[in-house]
Write a structure and sequence with these properties.
Elements lengths: L1 H8 L3 H9 L3 H8 L4 H15 L2 H9 L2 H11 L3 H14 L3 H8 L5
Helix pairs in contact: 1-4, 3-4, 3-6, 4-7, 5-8, 6-7
């Protein structure tokens, strides 16, 4: 339920930034490793939404999310979870994060 709530909230850019800033990424990465297929879908969906923001994409990488997302792509029985994990990875490595990492944010 927590992953589903974060997925729904992460649709808003402001919420997405707040979720990333306030520690919401590590629990989603942990939930991506769950045994439950539906949890895979909601965690991957939330991480996908969060990855739209370059700062969140960098946080996902820093928190070890790449390994979890690749694991979902390779092993989840849920086609939807595999698809959303692949989308999250695509957004994370589309080049925006590299520029963000070099300049940082005004608060960093």
């Amino acid at each position: 339920r927590a992953a589903g709530a974060l997925w729904g909230l992460s649709v808003s850019e402001a919420n997405s930034i707040a979720i990333g800033r306030d520690g919401g990424i590590p629990p989603l990465i942990a939930l991506a490793g769950s045994e439950a297929e539906d949890v895979h879908e909601t965690a991957a969906g939330a991480l996908w939404n969060l990855a739209f923001n370059p700062g969140n994409a960098l946080r996902i990488v820093e928190e070890g999310g790449v390994k979890s997302l690749v694991h979902l792509c390779l092993t989840s029985v849920s086609k939807m979870a595999r698809f959303m994990a692949a989308l999250a990875l695509a957004y994370m490595f589309d080049g925006r994060m590299d520029e963000y990492a070099m300049i940082g944010t005004s608060s960093e």
